[in-house]
Amino acid sequence: MSLAEGTAPGRMDRGAAGGDDAEMARFDEIMAADGRIEPTDWMPDAYRRALVRQISQHAHSEIIGMQPEGNWIGRAPSLKRKAILMAKVQDEAGHGLYLYSAAQTLGTDRDTMFEQLITGKARYSSIFNYFTPTWADMGSIGWLVDGAAICNQVPLCRASYGPYGRAMVRICKEESFHQRQGFEILLALMRGTDAQREMAQESVNRWYGPALMMFGPPDADSPNSQQSMAWNIKRFSNDELRQRFVDMLVPQAEVLGITLPDPAIAWNEERQSYDLGDLDWTEFHEVLAGRGQANAERIERRREAHEGGEWVREAARAYARKQAEAADAAEAQVA
Ligand code: FAQ
Questions:
Q1: What is the per-residue pLDDT across 87-96, written as a single tens digit (0 to 9) for each?
Q2: Fewest Cβ atoms nearer than 10 Å: which of 5, 15, 237, 276?
């Protein structure tokens, strides 16, 4: 749902959640005081839907996001690199699980979210629809993709919905480690041979634009931002965060000796920020429409993994049944 410009959050349709005036007033008060909503608090339907949309998309991104790097676990250039990459991919699985749990507290069950993902109905971040043909891509993902994720997600630690904000605190700590390991991979390549330097630069050339698109469409084309910001879910607009990211990247690129593939990047004294060129938004919309390099493969791999895990879910259900039967039997003996 979207609200007309300037409409106060409280003036909205309360939806099936009903809610009397006192409940609505309490919700508005919490928003105005920048407080937190917890799962047992009353909340308007549209707020709940907005959270499920964003949190489930975020969870799916973490889970699908395991694939581009998973592709390199068996081929990482040393045992140490392999161990680090494996730990990183496991962290991403963990992030997905915290986020699915946060979404579940809003009443959407995990099976429904999985179903939406493997049938291609759910969104996940555009960035994970690109292939990873070189080892340098592990550096670019860490430096650029995790770097963008941190910029976007640190403000989400203050999201008004308690379980989401709390999940983000731990996620951001781990993302910081991820970003540094990516930077270090690129630094090692840039200190290596000419061929390694070329590999690093070529990889950054491919990932830079898509990483900037992770922040979402330009503000003028972002239908959800205004309401999300009014509800203290998002704290900054897509363009504000994109700018912050580029300002962070430029000095880091200098340390690496890597050129960011945007000739329009220039320091703007007046704004105390870097100017940047336009992005190819046609490519972004193509990827969102399912026509990116790897969309079909990502969903297919996820579907196979889900189906392959059926025996684990069945075993867990059988165990739960046995536990319940044992508890019933024990209760019957006492009675
Ligand atoms: N990709 O109105 P807005 C990670 C959709 S996790 C795909 O601006 P909003 C960790 C958007 O959903 C990366 N779709 O939307 C990692 C909406 O469609 P809808 C994920 C996109 O929600 C690292 C429509 O376009 N992070 O990287 C994208 O206000 C390395 C209009 O857009 C999060 O999910 C996109 N890039 O702002 C893992 C962070 N951008 O739903 C592995 C939380 C927009 O109306 C390896 N999410 N869309 O049908 C957010 O902060 C926000 O949801 C945005 C989008 C900023 C992503």
A1: 999 999 999 9
A2: 5
Q: Is the dihedral of CA 83, 85, 88, 92 positive or negative?
A: negative
**How many other CB atoms sit within 10 Å of the CB of residue 251?**
10
Q: From CA 80, how far away is CA 73, in angstroms rounded?
A: 11
Cβ–ligand 1 contact at 217 (below 6 Å): yes
**The pTM is what?**
0.93
Enumerate residues 6+ apart whose C-beta is below 8 A from 241. 151, 152, 155, 215
Alpha helices in 157-280 (DSSP H): 162-190, 194-213, 225-230, 238-256
The residues, any chain, with a CB within 8 Å of residue 64's CB and separated by 6 or more, are 117, 124, 125, 128, 298, 302
Position 304: which residue type? E
Residue closest by Cα to atom 14 of ligand 1: 125
Which ligand 1 atom sits closest to the C-alpha of 217?
8
What is the SS3 assignment for 149? Answer: helix
Longest dimension (CA), the chain: 80
